[in-house]
Amino acid sequence: MITIKSITKSFGSLQVLKGIDLQINKGEVVSIVGPSGAGKTTLLQIIGTLDRPDGGEVVVDGIEVGSLSSKKLSDFRNQHLGFIFQFHQLLPEFTALENVMIPAYIAGKKKSEAMQRANELLDFLGLADRANHKPAELSGGEKQRVAVARALMNEPAVVLADEPSGSLDSKNKAELHQLFFDLRDKFGQTFVIVTHDEELAKLTDRTIHLRDGLVEHDSAADNLTQTVLPSQDVAE
Predict the structure, then answer these.
(1) CATH of the domain at 209
(2) Burial readout 203-219 (b: 16 or more C-beta within 10 A, e: otherwise)
(3) What total number of domains does the chain contain?
(4) Cβ of 189: how many Cβ atoms within 10 Å?
């Protein structure tokens, strides 16, 4: 689903990413962890086409995004990617339903189709009775679930989340974390989550540790070793 080859990125004299190689499979829930300044958010923004790398290649859902024009990149982002941020970024003057429908409006979908899809998502997320409430009338957990519904509105192949539970209390945090797996099981999306939350990282299918702009450790290698070693023992 996502292939990253030799990605580099600098801001002035500061090199943030120093040659990242990754492959993320369809349907994986992946966490990216590491100390502040490791390059986590920069990598997520490059995967999400919100920023361009200085060098290397990014392929998302079969498309090499670096070759796209700004207009095509914007369309690709709207149609293939969903975003969840630490702070919900809901528009205060719109209802929950209207906020969820925004990506569909941008994509030019019919209002009736967008409304049906938005209502279905809010119902799945337990917010059917909050659809006509504005953000100021919602709890923190409800706002973040509305943001999740908005991210899923156009049925993206990949959902990218940057510290999605960072502003939530323990109860809402646990519910949101479980929600990612429920959504993956129901809709089949790939989730890439930048987080400092150790509990969330432990839950994900795979954890990628960044340090100083490089991949320090990828738990996928551990899983491969656990799979391969028994067969090697038999062969011996």
Answers:
(1) 3.40.50.300
(2) bbbbbbbbeebebeebb
(3) 1
(4) 22
- Which positions ≥6 away from 57 have C-beta within 8 Å? 3, 4, 5, 6, 7, 64, 66
Q: What angle do CA 20, 24, 25 make, to 5 degrees?
A: 160
Q: Alpha-carbon distance 190 to 173, whole Å?
A: 20
The values of phi and psi at residue 124, to 5°, are -60, -35
The contacts of residue 123 (CB under 8 Å, 6+ apart) are none
Count of other CB atoms within 10 angstroms of residue 102: 16
User: Quick one: which H or E segment has residue 8?
Assistant: strand 2-11
pLDDT digits (tens, 9 = 90+) for 66-94: 888 888 988 888 889 999 887 778 999 99
Cα separations in angstroms, 2 against 12, 47, 101: 27, 8, 26
Rounded Cα gap, residues 126 and 136, in angstroms: 18
In a domain, 108, yes or no: no
- pLDDT for 213-228, tens place per residue? 999 989 876 654 444 4
Which residue range forms the structural domain that includes residue 47? 2-90+159-235
CA separation (Å) from 195 to 39, 98, 133, 210?
Answer: 12, 28, 29, 11
pTM of the model: 0.85
Report the SS3 class of residue 161: strand
